[in-house]
Design goal:
alpha+beta; Arc Repressor Mutant, subunit A; Rossmann fold; seven-stranded mixed β-sheet; five-stranded antiparallel β-sheet; 27 helices
Amino acid sequence: MTTPGTPSRVKFCDFVADFDSFELRKHGIRLRLQDQPFQVLKLLLDHPGQLVTREQLRMELWTESTFVDFDAGLNAAVRRLRDALNDSADEPRYIETLPRHGYRFIAPVEVFGQATANVRQDVPLGFGDGGDGQQSVAMSAEQVSDPVIDQPTKPRAPWRLVAACVLVAAVIMAAVALRSRVFAKRSGDGRVYSIAVLPLQNLSGDPSQDYFADAMTDALITNLAQSKSLRVISSTSSMRYKGVHKPLPEIAHELNVSVIVEGSVIRSGNQVRITAQLLDATKDQHLWARRYDRDLKDVLNLQNDLASAVAREVIGRLTPDDESRLTAITRPVNPEAYEASLKGRYYWNKRSLEGFNKGLALFQQAIQADPTYAPAYAGMADCYNFLGLGMGSMPPREYAQKAKEAAQKALELDENLAKAHAARGFTLYRYDWNWPQAEQEYRRALELDPHDIIVRGWFADLLSFLGRRQEAEAQREQVRDLDPLSIQAVRSVAGAYSAANQHDKAIDYYKKAIASEPDSFRMRMDLGGVYLQAERYEDATEEFQQVLTLSGPSVYPLARLGYSYALWGKTAEAERILGQLKKEHRPGYVSYAIAEICEALGRKEEALFWLEKAYDERAAQMIGLNRDFDSLRSDSRFQDLVRRVGVPN
């Protein structure tokens, strides 16, 4: 609590710190500054020219019950404060560091007025206890207006107090009116509001907790996406802004959104604090902020509460469907199972052999901690599915069986788990070759989580494979809308050009994307594939060699390089790679890749032998038979193989 003797406003150089509204302005323009940096500024301004020790700061701002690394937290707060003031630790104009002791405010200050008594100061950008461990305040656009600096005066007459109350009421009404113009239409009008959640900052003082902050960001995005009134940018596009300092209007323009959520996560043991703030992105103005303190076992309800609070602020009033989806009460989670599963999904997202194996071990660890934790089984199914594509040591049919069992167990525990339906759909599509049931599972997964762009991309691939290109393009259009900066979006656009035989446009599009992400394994592999389609074999071999340089030994670029050499007529080089693939044979994809190279070299019988082997191993790539083996089409044995797989014409 502040006391009546605390200054109301302090001016220094071009800045004004307003302790009534807890705002920092420069030339009348409100600056974005989180609560802890502002609190540090306030303590320094309360003692201008004097040393404020680190111990004083700890006692005032980091209570004994606060679960955070104090040194890391204070250093981060001072760094953000200096960033806002455009100050330097080496050549300070405002904040001087006294090593091992504390800080001193060295600029001249002017003090105006007295602060209102009993104003809370312990909440990032928000005041007043909202109950249940959360605190909030609506921050209006009116608050960015140029401050009126109070001059010291004699005590005011009572009628002036009445006039001040009337003025305050008018300001509040104006603020509400201005704020409502940010969201001019409210729920019930059918409007869809565009919103992005920027990566929540890890303020735990432990970089190894970055995965946890990323997971909380992804969870908030997933939960917000449950509202049909919100268009929520996918996490793969939002995550590109992690550690990136750009003006909010610029980010809003790049993502095509009008509202942005940003905030921070502090994790210590099983205690979690999430702070979030809502901003009008086009004007870079604060609208609302809230803080949640919870035990990790209650983290799912925390995520629901935060998502519903944000949705209410944006939409106004939740529809009954949104209310039921966003505010559903979930059972407590086992903290050990939850954390292991988060780490497992983090490694799965790396899409590498090491990532899938680490992810699988972590999902198994989660199940050991809690055998009833459904997301861990879904994660296991995803790992098995991707190991079966050619990275694992077992035949794909064995990975597929394990994936089916894990997905089934997940759905027995939670029939509404979208990722379990998606994993089962993947197995049905890529390994069981059961297209109708795969489509059914994908549709159910997207009904439960319509903003999962990875699953939507899988579904688009299935529709395209079935020859339903207009439906596939509709799905890809949604991917581009929800995830405009992702690899999925790039592949969607370039793939559409390639399917239309506009190879030059596809190549140009991939090149522009790779210029901004030169280490992308997936995009470079795709670019090499387009070169092959365009019969630019020299360019294709150069691209696959580049992938091998970037990724190290990997069966996928090696096999495509051998295929490129064979098509190009470089027989000796193709034979060398063919021998290497046979020597280091892994069941599944390698059998299929060997068949491709043999066919390109004109060795028909050998190609058919390896295709039969790939069929027995249940290689996921067998669904590409009609696309990849033109010279074998007239052979009755090949036609029989196509019939057994069930590939559509």
